[in-house]
Design brief:
Elements (H helix, E strand, L loop, with lengths): L1 H21 L3 H12 L27 E3 L6 E5 L6 E2 L14 E3 L4 E4 L13 E3 L4 E5 L12 E3 L4 E4 L13 E3 L4 E4 L13 E3 L4 E2 L15 E3 L21 E3 L6 E3 L12 E3 L4 E3 L14 E3 L6 E2 L13 E3 L4 E4 L13 E3 L4 E5 L12 E3 L4 E4 L13 E3 L4 E2 L15 E3 L6 E3 L12 E3 L4 E3 L15 E3 L23 E3 L20 E3 L6 E2 L13 E3 L4 E2 L5 H4 L6 E3 L6 E2 L13 E3 L4 E2 L1 E2 L4 H4 L12 E2 L21 H35 L3 E4 L8 H8 L18 E5 L5 E8 L5 H12 L9 E6 L3 E7 L6 H4 L6 H21 L14 E3 L5 E3 L4 H6 L3 H4 L3 H20 L7 H5 L4 H11 L8 H15 L10 H8 L10
Parallel strand pairs: 2-4, 3-5, 4-6, 5-7, 6-8, 7-9, 8-10, 9-11, 10-12, 11-13, 12-14, 14-15, 15-17, 16-18, 17-19, 19-21, 20-22, 21-23, 22-24, 23-25, 24-26, 25-27, 26-28, 27-29, 29-31, 30-32, 31-33, 33-34, 34-35, 35-37, 36-38, 37-39, 39-41, 40-42, 43-44
Antiparallel strand pairs: 1-2, 45-48, 46-47, 47-49, 48-49, 50-51
Helix pairs in contact: 9-12, 9-16, 12-15
């Protein structure tokens, strides 16, 4: 009996072990193994653990796991948006033979995509989008013969697109956009039988677009733009009979528009903007009756808008801006009932706008700026009751604003500057309750600032009336009170008179420009209320009284121009305590006393204080105490005699010193030689003496004038005819003069829209003054922390790249910039970037043997590295000062997340891809090995994908 009992006990023991092992089913075991590979910092998989007991598959209750109806198999795994990361081996996927849906999207999985996924032969949906899978897309995708959806959007795949995906006959959605795929689109992609959606945009695809794609009869949505193809649009695309949406924007397309596209009778959206398409706009496009959005902007298209476009009754968006189109705007355009956005700016359109524009449609955005249009504003432009943006600047429009704009109650932005509008500013601004931006500058308005304009919309932020030279009138008494959100007010050269009104409710105002008027009286002490004021220019008026102390206490004030008025009294000493003040211009007043001695004033140019005979102190002449005799001294006394001898001795010493100094200066002057000048395009003929007088800090009648500029200093100067220039001083050895002058002439003769112009050079044997265009809006270093949207940042980055590319590739031999940094990127009146001090570092290196031995190639590599650093500064609002230090020890993903956070970009925002592209360019440019850095031509091509989708206007 003992042995049977022992055997029975042994059987019971082994059965318990088997039960214990059977608790961990293979599916749950595989998922626990998968969990062990995953970085789950947010603990989103905290319910992935084994319970004490469970029926069938334990993991059916876990988050993201979906089982079939009887819990016998896992059919879905959704790990999307769980903040997961790590590298997946894929060894666990063999277990999930019944899996239908796998979603790993919106995480941070990295390195290679596990090929084990391709064993899931029942899979219908595979979503790996918005991760960081990298390397070449692995082979074997065709094993997923039941796959319907393949979404790999926004990863870091490289190498060619997988051709074998075309073997999946069931596939309906294919998304390979937003990675680094290169090479051509496989011609096999034209063989899909059931494909509905294809998205390949935002990669590095090249070559010609395969005409075989025209065989995709079932595709309704195609996006293949933001690549760099060769050639044009295949005419075979006209065979895609089901196509509703076609986007090939920003793809380097050339050639003309195939008229066969008019066969796409189901097409609703056609985006071909930002290419190099040319030729005329085919009239046959009017056959695409369902067309709602047509954007052909930023191309080289010429000719007129076809009259036949009046047949596109469903058209809502028509964007033809930035082309070479001409002719008049067809009357039929005004008859399109659904049209809400019409953008035709920056072309060569002429004639009048259609009389009925706005009458039959709900026009919301209209921009025809920078053309040759004439006539008046169409009287029914606001008839639809929804017009928000009306942009008409830089044309030849005439007439008055009334009555066309009298009832535009929905208007938010109005720009009519640089035209020939006349009459009174007759708008009933109190009816424009939503308007925020009004620019009426550079016209011929009369009749003063109407008393209705001081009841402008309470939302208005920008108001510009400048250069309406016969406007006249006064600034209304309650102007500031009735515009509490106004930030920028400009009324330059408007013949305004009267006093400055009291500054009430002006806490939002940052810019006030009132120069070149006839304003009189004092500056009210209530200016202290304007706590946000950054820039105030009230020069060239008839203002009087003391400079208010209140101005010196404004916390944000940076530029204050009070010049050419009749101010009296001293400069308030409180200005010396201002941490924000960069320029205080009090020239040509009746200011007396001493200039504050703080460093900020010593850094200001002499020209800011000229024309005040009773003003002294650096940077003007020193201030001296009076030399009167002390009362109580009697002439002839012993004490007086001693003092007289002391004074006489001092006078003799001073005379000796003065004679010695004069001799040294005279010798130096003779040794330096006479001043000469060389001028380039853009600077009128002046003598060297004319220029030097403009730079001098004191009035003089000497033939030869020596400006008091320190070495390498920069100042602003006004030349005899009123031209304002920036001046930089350099010094050289006499033996280097000839070679350096040749280099200066070379720099002076180059022209590019993103380079600051060198206008001239005034020089002698030992030194030179370089005269540059004066750009009024400061430099990037000063504005780097200013919050900007991505289109604005992209504009700055691309502008810098274009200027640098011109120096490197369009100048022969190449000209290295030599000192590219944020402070050498300056902005013009339109906030377009220009590179300053181009080649100056190379020029100065010619007198330095050690530096001069550095090769041009090495200097070009340095430029590219510095450009990468500037990109990083722009992306992070100025934080990284050194690329190597800012990227060392930090993952690319972490840096990107930080950049997205600083730019307030949400995870779903498509702009993420453009920012990511610019970030990748910055990393390439700052590669440790110079030979790994791309050329500026390559950089410009890479940046084409990071451009904004639309320009802000």
């Amino acid at each position: 009996m003992g042995i049977p009992n022992f055997i029975f006990s042994l059987l019971v023991f082994f059965s318990l072990i088997l039960v214990a092992f059977s608790v961990i089913d293979p599916f749950s075991e595989a998922l626990l193994s998968l969990k062990s590979e995953i970085n789950d910092d947010s603990n989103n998989l905290n319910d992935w653990f084994l319970p004490k007991s469970c029926d069938k598959i334990c993991s059916c209750s876990w988050s993201g796991v979906k089982c079939n109806s009887n819990s016998s198999a896992i059919i879905g795994l959704d790990l999307s948006m769980k903040n997961l990361g790590g590298t997946l081996s894929g060894k666990q996927f063999n277990v999930f033979s019944d899996l239908i849906d796998l979603n790993l999207s919106h995480n941070s999985f990295s390195e290679k995509l596990p090929v084990g996924i391709f064993n899931l032969t029942n899979l219908r949906t595979l979503d790996i989008s918005r991760n960081n899978f990298s390397g070449q897309f692995p082979g074997g995708i065709s094993n997923l013969e039941n796959l319907v959806v393949l979404d790999a959007f926004s990863n870091s795949f490289s190498g060619p697109l997988p051709a074998d995906v075309s073997l999946i006959e069931s596939l309906k959605i294919l998304n390979f956009a937003g990675s680094y795929f290169s090479g051509e689109i496989p011609s096999e992609y034209g063989s899909f039988k059931t494909l509905d959606f294809i998205h390949l945009a935002g990669n590095f695809l090249t070559g010609k677009i395969p005409p075989e794609l025209g065989m995709l009869k079932t595709v309704t949505h195609m996006e293949i733009g933001y690549n760099s193809y060769e050639g044009g649009i295949p005419w075979e695309f006209g065979n895609m009979s089901s196509l509703q949406y076609l986007d090939i924007a920003g793809a380097n397309l050339s050639g003309s528009l195939p008229k066969q596209l008019s066969n796409l009778t189901n097409l609703e959206t056609l985006f071909l903007f930002r290419n190099q398409l040319n030729g005329v706009l085919p009239w046959e496009f009017s056959k695409i009756k369902k067309l709602k959005s047509l954007d052909l902007s930023d191309n080289l298209i010429s000719g007129p808008i076809p009259e036949s476009f009046s047949e596109l009754k469903n058209l809502r968006l028509l964007s033809l801006m930035y082309n070479d189109m001409s002719g008049s705007v067809p009357e039929g355009i005004s008859e399109l009932p659904e049209l809400d956005t019409l953008l035709i700016w920056n072309n060569f359109f002429s004639g009048s706008l259609p009389e009925d524009l706005g009458k039959y449609s709900k026009l919301k955005y209209f921009d025809c700026s920078t053309n040759n249009l004439v006539g008046r504003i169409p009287p029914n432009i606001c008839a639809g009751g929804v017009l928000e943006r009306l942009i008409l600047f830089s044309n030849n429009f005439t007439g008055e604003l009334y009555p066309s704009l009298s009832n535009c109650s929905t208007l938010v932005r109005l720009r009519v500057e640089d035209n020939s509008f006349s009459g009174e500013i007759s708008l009933i601004f109190s009816n424009l309750s939503d308007i925020t931006y009004v620019d009426l500058s550079r016209n011929r308005f009369l009749g003063g600032i109407s008393f209705d304009i001081d009841r402008v919309s309470s939302k208005i932020q920008y108001l510009n009336l400048s250069y309406n030279q016969e406007l006249g009138g006064i600034i209304p008494e309650k102007f500031w009170r009735d515009n509490p959100f106004l930030q920028n007010f400009s009324a330059i050269s408007c013949s305004l008179s009267g006093n400055l009104p009291e500054f009430e409710f002006c806490k939002s105002v940052s810019v006030i420009e009132l120069r070149k008027n006839s304003l009189s009286g004092i500056v009210p002490e209530s200016i202290s209320i304007c706590q946000s004021l950054v820039r105030m220019d009230i020069s060239n008026n008839n203002l009087t009284g003391h400079i208010p102390v209140a101005l010196a206490t404004l916390p944000e004030i940076s530029v204050l121009d009070l010049s050419h008025n009749s101010f009296t009294g001293p400069i308030p000493i409180q200005f010396g305590n201002s941490s924000s003040l960069k320029l205080l211009n009090v020239s040509f007043n009746d200011i007396s006393g001493s200039i504050p001695s703080e460093k900020s004033f010593r850094m200001m140019d002499t020209s800011a204080f000229l024309g005040n005979p009773r003003l002294c102190g650096a940077p003007l002449r020193p201030c001296h105490r009076g030399n009167g005799m002390p009362s109580g001294l009697e002439l002839g006394s012993r004490r007086t005699q001693k003092l007289a001898w002391v004074l006489i001795t001092c006078a003799v010493v001073m005379l000796f010193v003065a004679t010695a100094v004069f001799g040294v200066l005279h010798f130096r002057k003779r040794s330096e030689g006479r001043w000469k000048i060389v001028t380039f395009s853009g600077l009128p003929e002046f003598t060297a003496n004319d220029v030097l007088r403009s730079l001098n800090s004191t009035e003089t009648t000497e033939v030869e004038v020596v400006p008091k500029l320190t070495n390498k200093s920069v100042c602003k100067a006004v030349l005899p005819t009123g031209i304002t220039v920036s001046v930089k001083k350099i010094e050289w050895e006499p033996k280097q003069m000839t070679i350096m002058l040749e280099f200066i002439k070379r720099i002076g003769n180059i022209r590019h829209k993103n380079l600051i112009r060198l206008l001239g050079c005034c020089y002698n044997r030992n030194q030179a003054y370089l005269l540059y265009d004066y750009l009024p809006n400061g430099n990037l270093a000063e504005k780097i922390q200013t919050k900007r949207d991505w289109p604005t940042k992209s504009k700055i980055i691309n502008g810098i790249a274009k200027g640098l590319c011109f120096l490197h590739h369009d100048c022969y031999p190449a000209i290295p910039h030599g000192d590219l940094k944020a402070s050498n990127v300056v902005f013009d009146e339109n906030m377009d970037p220009h590179l300053a001090e181009c080649g100056l570092s190379t020029l100065l290196a010619t007198s330095n043997t050690e530096t001069g031995q550095v090769s041009i190639k090495d200097q070009l590599y340095k430029d590219i590295y510095n450009f990468g650093e500037v990109i990083l500064e722009i992306l992070t609002n100025g934080e990284p000062k050194n690329a190597e230090a800012s990227t060392k020890g930090t993952s690319k993903e972490a840096l990107l997340r930080e950049i997205f956070c600083k730019n307030e970009i949400s995870p779903s925002d498509p702009i993420q891809e453009a920012i990511k592209s610019a970030f990748e360019v910055a990393l390439l440019c700052t590669s440790n090995r110079p030979s790994d850095r791309p050329s500026m031509e390559e950089v410009s091509r890479l940046l084409s994908r990071s451009k904004p989708e639309r320009r802000s206007r």
